[in-house]
Each structure stands twice: as structure tokens, then as C-alpha cells.
């Protein structure tokens, strides 16, 4: 199904083509759970259908059909990773800004940490059911999900961990967090689609994984995944330490 909202973001960003939503994997999950076609499953048991549909909503995908070739490109599915609001402007290699929803694998963006050009390795998109956080600094603001990483004077932190008056590092500039506002979605509206990028670079070099979003430096998808792994590792070590004292 054509997603005209996301297609407009693509066109506004200078791209040509169409973005379509795809629920093939959700349909497969519904059929596996019931042994029926999705339409038959819904007719037989709407409550069970809705529960199964909700449990498999993470399989919701987007495909970009790029003009003029009509090449179909999968925009990766997302789980609980940190992401940007769709209209967030990303600094490109040529100094222009484009909506994150218009960027594709292979595009060149600006890395403010290393002050150099980086290539996009992967793009993901998907619905977000939790409120977005608007992180406001003395230089600007950016809307992200709670898991999105920022580099602070005390190290990497997720957006929901940021505190007022904390210092965010932005290249050679330091910015102060003035406020963090939770943006509740309208109850009548569809879940917003959020986007993220993963840059090419070494798994061991954090500095290769930063982008400039609405003028604020943030980590990419790879860095968010690494941050989650590191925090999980610390929790395991802390648990082991407590166990040894018993």
C-alpha cells in the first residue's frame, strides 16, 4: 500500500519514487497461528486476530521504489532501537540537510565527530508506540525515541537518561540540555513512523558512528546497538558480583 506521508518526505528531500508499507510477514504470522487466511481468521475470531496482529506488528515493513528505475529497496524493520522523527533533518556530505525519511543506503552524510564524510550502510523504519522525546539544547532541538544515543561529557547516554543542564558534545562544541519534553501521540492518529541510519565504519571505533540531526550530534543505529550491549554486559557483571558476595 502506498504510504503518501512517507512518500512526501522522500520527495521533499529531493528524491523521486514511492514508499509503500508492507504487511506480508504479518499476514504469514496470522496464517501460521490460525491455519486460515487473514480475512477468514478475522471473520472467525476478531479478538484473537487483533491479539495476534498486535503481537506481530514489529514485522511491519517499508519498501522504497526509486524512480526512474523502479528498483525496490527494503527499508529495514526496527525493534526497540532508538530512532528519529521522520522530518528530522540530517546533514549531508554536500552541506545540505535532508529529512531522514528520504535517505537511503549508499547516501553520503556528514560525521560531525570526525569532521568527515560517511556512507550510509543501512536504513530502518517502523512504527513507534511510545511517546517521542524532544531534546532541547541551547543550540536547537531534535525529536527521538527514548533509546536514541547521545554523547555527553560523562559518556554515551540514551535520550531517556538525559538530565536538564547535562552537557551534550557536538563535534568541538558543547551544548547544554535545557529541557526534555515527552510528546504524546494523538489518540486518534496512527502510530508515527520513525527512522534511523547505520553508517559504515569499524565496530570498535565509536567516533565513526555519529551524525548531525537538526544541528545536534547523535549516535547512529550501530552505536545504539553497541550501547545496549555494553549496558547489558555491565548488568551481568553487577549480578555476578553480588552473587559472589553471598
From the structure above, extract its key features.
246 residues; alpha+beta; 4-stranded antiparallel β-sheet; elongated; disordered C terminus
Describe the structure.
The protein has helices spanning 4-12, 24-34, 38-44, 46-55, 221-245, and strands at 17-22, 61-66, 71-75, 84-85, 89-91, 97-99, 108-111, 116-127, 132-137, 141-144, 149-152, 155-158, 167-170, 173-183, 193-199, 210-213, 216-219. With 246 residues, it is of the alpha+beta class. Strands 4-15-8-7 form a four-stranded antiparallel sheet. Strands 10-9-14-13 form a four-stranded antiparallel sheet, with no helix packed on it. Strands 1-2-3 form a three-stranded antiparallel sheet. Strand 7 (108-111) and strand 8 form a beta hairpin. The radius of gyration is 20 Å and the shape is elongated.
**Major sheet attributes:** 4 strands, antiparallel
Report the count of strand segments.
17
Uncertain residue segments: 6-19, 232-246
**Helix percentage:** 25-40%
Rg, alpha carbons: 20 Å
What is the CA–CA distance across the termini? 58 Å
Q: Structural class of the secondary structure composition?
A: alpha+beta
Strand numbers in spatial order across the main sheet: 4-15-8-7
Share of residues in strands? 35-45%
Mean pLDDT: 78
Helix/strand order, N-terminal first: HEHHHEEEEEEEEEEEEEEEEH
User: DSSP helix count?
Assistant: 5
C-alpha geometry: elongated
